[in-house]
């Protein structure tokens, strides 16, 4: 009987279950949208129970669609939106409030309290003080949900990022664990010891009894007994680290960029911690056995989400796919720049207070220019990260591996290649986040032999090479930098 891995990819706006075969091919997929909630300006939340129900729906849906039973499933891999924070009652297993999504700025005031501790925190975690990360979100929940502080002190509450929440539910409450890549995004993990840091927990006043056990990324977590007692969870990683692994960036200096709700560029920096001075994050890539791999990361909060905004809020398009046709229907943006700082700006600015703005509008401007400017803004933000990454590592990136939903937009990919003046490579399987989780699971279960085996079966499908003149690329990017600088003046 042929065996497969089910990779559960729980993202910000959707949950997917993907069936992966022995050759690293996507056999089939079932997807369900997960709504975000926006209770106040800058706040982003989600229904944690709704997320779990979506996991049940897509996993069962995948088996029904493929006419497979659990006997055909080798193991399960889990990858997830990182930093999104769930706190639940240990006795009932029920969330005590909505999950606070990674994009949310609602704990910004709490982060301000710790500004004086930023160097201390950076050296321990590789992260910057920002509401993006989980620690301030946990503190917000403990302070704003009635009775939460006391319950936490009594050991009655549990915290988890989405991987922990899914694993807890899949194991019927038997496993409260996370992997090192997700743990490194909480601002509570010491990235050198790979353990929860007592001093950080005391600083944020978070009881260590709330925290999940930290395990390797490729590891037997235990049975997914909600679905089947015989099938185990063997691989877990945060979505961006999973994508880096799924792109087979196993060597130091190899990098990838994921175009999802946000955009995330990661570079493999080997087994030693390297700190950034220009807004990049140092994060754990993965841990296999005793071997840990670190990465530098640039984070962009609004990537593909700007296209959703064009569709759902501005109603300039009816479907995301329309954006490409509108963009190529005009020669350029006619001088229009859109800075989508809807929830602040990430790398290299880390400006929580910045808000979106549009520049260069004239009577000649129409929705084609507006839509094109929105797509170009994704590429410009990635250029911001790309430049810092090259500068800090001293590595000239001649090739960038890409993945994520927005890579289906050929205009965006070509413009990205032009602005970076770099070759862009798309893998055969675009579900590299899910693929990374499957590879990690398969390494633990024996489904895949080793890293060399994975490298051999990994294939690419398409390349984009720069066609724009270097001077034009520079001129367009200078306009973007001006737009960002003016945006940051208005707060």
Description:
By secondary structure, this protein is an alpha+beta fold. The strands form 7 sheets. The protein has a 7-stranded mixed beta sheet with strand order 17-18-16-15-21-22-23, with helices on both faces. It has a 6-stranded mixed beta sheet with strand order 3-2-1-5-14-13. The mean pLDDT is 93. It is built from 16 helices and 23 strands. It is globular, with a radius of gyration of 21 Å. The longest helix is centred in the last third of the chain and has 27 residues, at 367-393. It has a domain at 4-240: ATPase, nucleotide binding domain (Nucleotidyltransferase, domain 5). β15 and β16 form a beta hairpin.
Features:
491 residues; 34% helix; 6-stranded mixed beta sheet; 7-stranded mixed beta sheet
Largest sheet: 7 strands, mixed
The backbone outline, from C-alpha atoms, is: globular
The CATH superfamily label of the domain at 4-240 reads ATPase, nucleotide binding domain
Distance between the termini: 61 Å
Low-pLDDT residue spans: none
Q: In CATH's first tier, which class of the domain at 4-240 applies?
A: Alpha Beta
Oligomeric state of shown chains = single chain
Give the C-alpha Rg.
21 Å
The count of helical stretches stands at: 16
Measured by DSSP, the beta-strand proportion falls in 15-25%
Say what the CATH topology of the domain at 4-240 is.
Nucleotidyltransferase, domain 5
Mean pLDDT: 93
Strands of the widest sheet, in order across it, are 17-18-16-15-21-22-23
Per CATH, which architecture of the domain at 4-240?
2-Layer Sandwich
Task: Quickly give the structural class.
Answer: alpha+beta
Helix content: 25-40%
Per DSSP E runs of 2 or more residues, the count of β-strands stands at 23
